[in-house]
Amino acid sequence: MARYLTVAYTINKLDIMILKTVVEHDKSGLEMVLDAMNELLEEKFVEGIKNKHRTLYEIKQMTELLGIYQHRINIESNAVSKFAETFIRSFATPNNRCFNTTEELFTKIKSTIASLKDVFYKTSATDRTQLPEGVEVPTVFERSPLGHGNYTADVFGLSSYPKEVQDLYNALETMFSSATSTLALCHMMIEQEDTTRNDIVQLRQIYKESCNEMLEAVNAATAFITSSQELPENEMEKLREKAGSEDNEKFLKSGYHNYDKKIMTQYLIIKTVKQARNEGLTEQEAFFWRKNHKKALLVRKVIDNFDKIKDVEGQKGSLSSRVLVEFLKWCGVNESIETQLYKYYFQPKYSTKGKFKPIGWNTISGRRKELIDLGATGESLAKDFEKRLENVLTLQELAA
User: Fold this and answer.
1) What is the pTM of this model?
2) What percent of the chain stands above pLDDT 90?
3) Which residues touch 210 (CB under 8 Å, ≥6 apart)?
């Protein structure tokens, strides 16, 4: 026959030892909790619930509470898994300026840790032991029989208890399994980060990939098109100056996961602008042709001599929409920034010397769509424009 849980008790709160629930926000904290969860056994569970749960009502309430905890753990588990997908392979971190991996991870699993603390606390026996002076108070993970606390194996086992007790055990086992997976993933990321920081070959590859990815973030760089000539101070740039080069181990190891993406994006733009200035380019030109500075200089020369291009005149003294579409494709920028290239670079420069009237962007966009629908490609349009440049660029320039 299934047995009910009965525990006689008398409590004077002033005599109770308050067990520690602190979990250090570092690898050792994760290891402590993981180690305690790995100790779960049926006989330990029975001892644990007898410590604090005296009626079937309390057992049912605890099971419902575990359901709430499980839901929170599931949400945090999904968030940590998503975070882990790109964390190691990203040179810059996604949020705070002074990034601390363990603090970030513990923030993501705060409900999981809180839930586990509560479960271990609710299964720890009341203790009136007076500790000698200087002796540290034990943690709930040490005292709860679910973890490393003392227990006495029940002679009849869990099967002799009511179904409600067995349901509670199943809920606890599921919760521990989910929490273990989440905490183990956090532990793995901390260790993997340390390993990556000391693997200079991998670190160089991650830095290169992150640079390429972030330079494609056009919106982050747009502000520099209308910015002043004064470049802002930047923490990563200061680190590079101290290290001497961005390929230096000191720069890579110190920079990895120590700056947020905003700072790194700004650093990459500053780097691009500085390189461009050394080659005689403006900030705008550095932005549009950051990977091809020679092309930037050719585009500048073409705009300065745009009226010499074959068939450049369109209707009513305006520029030809087809020639402008071909020109934008020849410039070799992403289609997503052709609007900016035309409005903020071409038009101001052309208007200072050109005699024809620039046309609106909607006309150019409509013409571009029309040509693409007729089978033209970006490559074919660029080649068509190149054929018009014999009076503007030399054969050597065209071959470059």
Assistant:
1) 0.70
2) 54
3) 89, 90, 91, 92, 264
